[in-house]
Amino acid sequence: MPIKVPNNLPAVDTLTKENVFVMTDARAMTQDIRPLHILLLNLMPTKIETETQLTRLLGNTPLQIELELLQTGTHKARNVSQEHMLAFYKTFHEIRNNYYDGMIITGAPVELMEFEEVEYWDELCEIMEWSKSHVHSTFHICWGAQAALYYHYGIPKHVLQKKLSGVYEHHLDYKNGMLFRGFDDVFYVPHSRNTTVNREDIEAVSELKVIASSPEAGVFAVKSENDRQIFVMGHSEYDWDTLLNEYLRDKKAGLDPAVPDHYFPEDDDTQPPVVRWRSCANLLYSNWLNYFVYQSTPYDISTISREDLAPALQERADLKVAKFGGTSLATAVQFQKVAGILREDPARRYIVVSAPGKRRKDDVKITDMLIECAGNPELMDQRFIDITSRFREIVRGLKLSFDLDAELEKIRRDYEQNGSDAFLISRGNISVRGSWRNISGRILWTRQN
């Protein structure tokens, strides 16, 4: 599925050449799909590069994403044209009444400053507070992660003796977590920073869990107990040459930087870098979007401010909703299988059922018969005979005592009274518990109990 971005965003040309499916505003308007609304607060000076890196990762998922770009109003970008900022970026004042499924807060080159000394710190604090009631899940990167840990939990950052720069080996501290589902036991992530947070400070906060770390780079990924806050210290979104360009920039400035660790073959900076983090980066963002955003965000995102969320995937669920389609309810034998599945787990207390589907290739689905009846009273008698025959076959096969004629007559009478085609057609798809309103559900409930 594509990621939806503003028309004419510079990243579109780059990503299209890389076969990343990017959809512009104009094309998305023709689709009737609820996209995920993702807000990107881009604090990096290299705006376009960061936009491209993150858009590339967000677009490499089976979900449709609608991306909005946010800038701080209290700081004016110096490394990108104001035309670009005005064309593609909004300020907090413009979006503060909106709700978002997810949000990304990037790093920033201000880590050697105290948080309170940063020009836009007060505005960032306001945005982070706002995110708790207007964003379903927030993904913080590098300095953005350190700033959020400090703001939300009072965890300080510490200056390193020397800059941490390179590509480092990582492992999972919590192997059952969904954020790193599918990861290898060892994976690699680029880092480029002068500060860190201490593991003991994080572990002293009961609401936080360290889920991945590195022997050399320290804590890498942390999540809140309710999964709505993700803190990542590295830069898995980096391009193959991002560290190279930083290294060459610092050399040109006469800063005598150390060669980035584990980046060049045998630390030879005349050789092309070895890329070992790209697959992990794609999987990390896909997992966040899928398990921490898409799977648990409310369809009506305006309800985010009122939601009381459990973790994205609980180890034990007390309530489950089961859905069975037409083929699984086509015959008495299929009904028996479904009833067995429901009895296996007491948590399966709500069931969404469809009308019986095809028993064989040349058969007709019950829903298709109902569609034919809608608006065609001359077909009503014959089709209801066919529908009755199908259900009687199922009832006899299950050896049930079931007042089939009364049930069908009620559906027909209700349709004739209210004249709603949608009512008639929808008799095949209803979600209920205990009190069924369509025949498939009534039979299944009887069979299960």
The total strand number stands at: 15
CATH topology of the largest domain: Rossmann fold
Summed up, the domain count is 2
**What structural class should be given to the helix and strand makeup?**
alpha/beta
Name of the top-level CATH class of the largest domain:
Alpha Beta
Outline? elongated
Uncertain residue ranges: 309-317, 430-437
How far from one another are the termini? 42 Å
Number of helices: 16
In CATH terms, the superfamily of the largest domain is Class I glutamine amidotransferase (GATase) domain
Strand content: 15-25%
Give a quick account of the main beta sheet: strands, pairing sense, barrel closure: 12 strands, mixed
User: In CATH terms, what is the architecture of the largest domain?
Assistant: 3-Layer(aba) Sandwich
Helix content: 25-40%
- Kindly report the average pLDDT value: 84
Q: Over all CA atoms, what is the radius of gyration?
A: 28 Å
